[in-house]
Amino acid sequence: xxxxxxxxxxxxxWALTDPLLRQYHDxxxxxxxxxxxALWEKLMLDGFQAGLSWRTIxxxxxAFRDAFLGFEPSIxxxxxxxxxxxxxxxxxxxxxxxxxxATIRNATAYVRMLDGEEDFSLFAWSHVGNTPLLGDGSGAIxxxxxxxxLSGALxxxxxxxxxxxxxxxxxxxxxxxxxxxxxxxxx
Length: 187
Description:
Blueprint: E1 3-4, E2 10-11, H1 19-27, H2 36-49, H3 54-67, H4 73-76, H5 81-88, H6 97-115, H7 120-126, E3 133-134, H8 145-156, H9 164-173, E4 177-178
Parallel strand pairs: 3-4
Antiparallel strand pairs: 1-2
Helix pairs in contact: 2-3, 2-6, 2-9, 8-9
């Protein structure tokens, strides 16, 4: 059950107690994203979130954007060992070699799709019939059959750090799945 916050708007439980999460919930989470680069950026951030709280990533999001030069895949694909060393030394982001290397690989996979005339947004949205799926409203689901399928399709295209749980969270955040809790004003 969704509980009302101080301004009496019913929200998903996870967004009730923290002003940063509430702002993110109200303004971004679950809004359909169609821009291919923005979808890719969000997928990369969801990969960095693995094992951490989303609040941590949200607080560092601008620093990530600076460190990864605007999350422009055509630039990130050219990152080399010196860039990896720079990122590993940057205390303003999550310094995980595996996640940094995955982001570079994923930029390469994204650019390869683009070079093959496969639009990342059309690819992602085709998995939900180009219309947001409606989640069950419980707020408890962390994976889905469509997320499993999309995860596999991403891996086939060379992406990494895109397991079913990460992909499902990304689908929720980018509006591919409307997973706001029943009663939430954003549902």
